[in-house]
Write a structure and sequence with these properties.
binds adenosine-2'-5'-diphosphate; 8 helices; Dihydrodipicolinate Reductase, domain 2; Rossmann fold; 14 strands
Length: 340
């Protein structure tokens, strides 16, 4: 009970889960400061029998703070993370602001905890879709090697924040007019056009790059290589938003170096891994689904099957709660690893 902790974005979809996880896991915090924008200063948040009062984020907020969790968007991290570091805090940043910078460890504790030793004040929490994929693939990579990953995602709206959840709910209520539903947030608040998400599938998450990929897809491709420490790994992604509230799903195709690996080998490697649960039995229709992964800490894997033609090729279906393992839980696990 000796650490002073701050949560920036404390009123948001991820920030509220960070508080929950800190309390649930009995993180040794002496104080927890809840920070957001000026708009929500004074708002009360109750959790664990205590009431926390939200304060506006200013540079001085970080005086005396040991660990600051950031989940208020990239621009807020750009502005305030250096202020927090300057005042002696270690920042665990959930945004993409610093992930690919040198000197910024990008960490999934089950995969590359050793990278934490190299931080210079900021540690980055990877993209939600990347985290669940690398956590599930790590035991396979360790045992059989992986040379190639092709992933397609089926992502929940909560990854785009609390306002995106509201948007899906409002559109769902007006489902008869769904094609004309008012859309302001998705696919990306800063995009020129907005499309309804209710009863739809939007093949755009974040903005487009000149390459024709979206930034979300590029995050998955670049972050996976950095976390695995393998710049030769071939990774390519298609990211799609679905009308699911919470829980990202992924269809993942891998090529193992060991072409003799069997489905049973892959299953047993994953069964021994911490934080991974295999739910894979077609005879009982057992496979992961986002509705059942919501609220759970683990990454769930099913539908593991061999490519009939390509040696070493496997398909997997990977599902996790994007707000927990994909964000808040992984951030808190980074903090736990840091103070070990
Ligand atoms: P606020 O509620 O005051 O707007 P989400 O990811 O669910 O959209 O949440 C975003 C989080 O980021 C919220 O907690 C929001 O606080 C916070 N936030 C937005 N802008 C700022 C800012 N300029 N400074 C600090 N926090 C901010």
């Amino acid at each position: 009970e000796n650490l002073n902790v701050a949560i920036v974005g404390a009123t948001g979809a991820v920030g509220t889960k960070i508080l929950e996880k800190l309390l649930e896991r009995k993180f040794p915090a002496k104080t927890i400061k809840m920070l957001a924008s000026k708009r929500s200063a004074g708002t009360e948040i109750s959790a664990g029998g205590q009431t926390y009062i939200v304060e506006e984020t200013v540079p001085e907020s970080f005086e005396g703070i040991d660990i600051a969790f950031f989940s208020a968007g990239g621009s807020v991290s750009q502005k305030f993370a250096p202020e927090a570091v300057k005042r002696g805090a270690v920042v665990i940043d959930n945004t993409s602001a610093f992930r690919m910078e040198e000197g910024v460890p990008l960490v999934v504790p089950e995969v590359n905890p050793h990278m934490l030793n190299e931080h210079e004040g900021i540690i980055a929490n990877p993209n939600c879709s990347t985290i669940q994929m690398v956590a599930a693939l790590q035991p396979v990579k360790e045992k059989f090697g992986i040379s190639r990953i092709i992933v397609s995602t089926y992502q929940a709206v909560s990854g785009a924040g609390a306002e995106a959840i509201d948007e899906l709910e409002a559109q769902s209520k007006e489902f008869q007019e769904r094609s004309n539903s008012k859309a302001d947030i998705l696919p990306s608040a800063s995009a020129a056009k907005h499309y309804p998400i209710a009863f739809n599938a939007i093949p755009q998450i974040d903005m487009f790059d000149d390459s024709g990929y979206t930034l979300e897809e590029l995050k998955m491709m670049n972050e996976t290589k950095k976390i695995f420490g393998d710049q030769n790994l071939a990774v390519t992604a298609t990211c799609v938003r679905l009308p699911v509230v919470t829980g990202h799903s992924e269809s993942v195709y891998i090529e193992t170096d060991d072409v003799n690996a069997t489905v049973e080998d892959i299953q047993s490697a994953m069964k021994g891994a911490s934080g991974v649960v295999v739910q894979d039995d077609p005879s009982t229709q057992t496979y992961p689904m986002p509705l059942f992964a919501e609220g759970k800490d683990e990454v769930f894997v099913g539908r593991i099957r061999k490519d009939p033609k390509h040696p070493g090729g496997f398909h997997l279906w990977i599902v996790a709660d994007n707000l927990l393992k994909g964000a808040a839980l992984n951030s808190v696990q980074i903090a736990e690893e840091l103070i070990k």
